[in-house]
Amino acid sequence: MKPPPVLSDVTIEELAKNPYPTFDRIRSMASAVWVDSARIHLVTRFDDIMTVERNHHLFASTNPGSLMNKVMGHSLMRKDDEPHKLERAAVEPSFRPGVVKQHWAPRFRSIANDLINQFEADGETDLFSSFAAPMASLSLIDLLGFEDVAWEDIAWWSQALMDGVGNYQADPEISNRARRASAAIDQAIDHVLARHVETENPSILSSMAHAGHKHSREQIRANIKVIVGGGLNEPRDAILTTVLGLLQNPEQLAQAQANEKLFARAFEESVRWISPIGMYPRRVTQDTVLGDTRLKAEDQLGICVGAANRDTGHFEQPDSFDLNRTASRHLGFGAGPHFCAGTWVARQMVGEIAVPILFNRLTNLRLQAGNSPILRGWVFRGPIALPVRWDR
Ligand code: HEM
User: Fold this and answer.
1) 6 forms bridges with which residues in the sheet?
2) I want to staple 93 with a disulfide (CB 3.0 to 4.6 A). Which of 144, 176, 207, 320 is the partner?
């Protein structure tokens, strides 16, 4: 058993441009590798991540020093055991598959169609700004139970919070923006909370207000902020990567167009192929061993599900997008007690609605020649633009 090896020749910019060669390198080195530039031990092997997620007493989400707690308040994502369970149960009614299908799906469908109406006649667009970002934002406004909030505002709040959570260099400008976003979200909650307390409905705010375990205003605020921060860029990025995967693999697109059920498989494959959340943190609670590596209490781990989802021990030709894969169990939604609460929402919004409607309505949808899409990020990853054309 050895201590974690150190990787000192990888920059954050390299990781943000294309993390996969570094992920491969780390996976071949050890179960946990200290990466100097990221200032964290990265865990990249599928089986090691499963071990971490099965042992949350050794690998905790609770993290007293976490920047997320400072920026958003102490949310369910940084709790374990009973405190986590109670707050998780409070949001779950809005996310149940039946509620998603009956209540949210018609709303998502109408948002998707309204957005396409606005650019259909143009014959070309950047799907990031005209479709994926407003689709994810408008859906989230409804899911939360917010009113009188513009999609551009919630998108800005979300980005400002996420920048704040990653602000390890303590840049005052970033901290200030995150504080402003946080205050704006508090106001948006105060604007509607009384109505949700009065009348029960499927929104997340209503679920929290009517939870068996009474929530303080601080708990409601922190958990709403976590969902604003974490429930927007992932579906946005998954819409774009699913479209990208299909457009780059025309024979698979033809298959999906012949059998619409395959769009859901394409979505699932896109979350494996380019995981929108590439890394999330855990804290080691006592001296222990993970795979071939010795870890010490208080070591911070970066759980790289984006890397595990390309582990050749689990996936054949993992760098390829392939909706016909038989081994489909991936870690794109995490695992264990913190497994993504919004999985059914994302599956419905992206795989069953946004992507099939786009391909159905925009004939011969294709990437703009000579304008290749750029992907960025390793903690969060997705296309930063997706310029496309179709036949008018
Ligand atoms: C493709 C879309 C999505 C992906 C890939 C994704 C991915 C993830 C991952 C990997 C985690 C685990 C993080 C950790 O363990 O620290 C997570 C947690 C979570 N996600 Fe998602 N997510 C998506 C969409 C959504 C949506 C649309 C919502 C809500 C509207 C949402 C709400 C949550 C919440 C509340 C948690 C925390 C759960 C807990 O701590 O118990 N997610 N998500």
Assistant:
1) 34
2) 207
Residue 297 neighbours by CB under 8 Å, 6+ apart = 284, 285, 286, 287
Ligand 1 centre distance from Cα of residue 342 (Å): 6
Ligand 1 centroid to Cα of residue 230, in Å, is: 6
Q: Which long-range contacts (CB under 8 A, 24 or more apart) does 195-198 make?
A: 196/145
First to last CA, the chain: 63
Average pLDDT of 136-163? 96
Quick: pLDDT tens for 264-303: 999 999 999 999 999 999 999 999 999 999 999 999 999 9
* Residues having CB within 6 Å of any atom of ligand 1: 76-77, 88, 140, 143, 226-227, 230-231, 234-235, 238, 271, 276-277, 280, 305, 332-334, 338, 340-342, 345-346
The CATH architecture that domain 6-389 belongs to is Orthogonal Bundle (1.10)
Nearest to 59 by CA among 223, 230, 299: 299
Rounded (10°) CA dihedral 196, 199, 204, 205: 20
- Please tell me the distance between residue 390's alpha carbon and the centre of ligand 1 in angstroms: 33
Would you say residue 208 has pLDDT above 90?
yes
Our mutation pick for probing the ligand 1 site, out of 340, 343, 350, 353, counting the most ligand atoms within 8 A of Cβ, is 340
Nearest CA to ligand 1 atom 39: 338
> What are 217-268's pLDDT values in tens digits?
899 999 999 999 989 999 999 999 999 999 999 999 999 999 999 999 999 9
Three-state secondary structure string covering 96-154: CHHHHHHHHHHHHHHHHHHHHHHHHHHCEEEHHHHHHHHHHHHHHHHHHCCCCCCHHHH
Residues found in the chain: 392
Closest among 246, 256, 201, 236 to 346, alpha carbons compared: 236
Residue 40 contacts residue 281 (beta carbons within 8 Å): yes
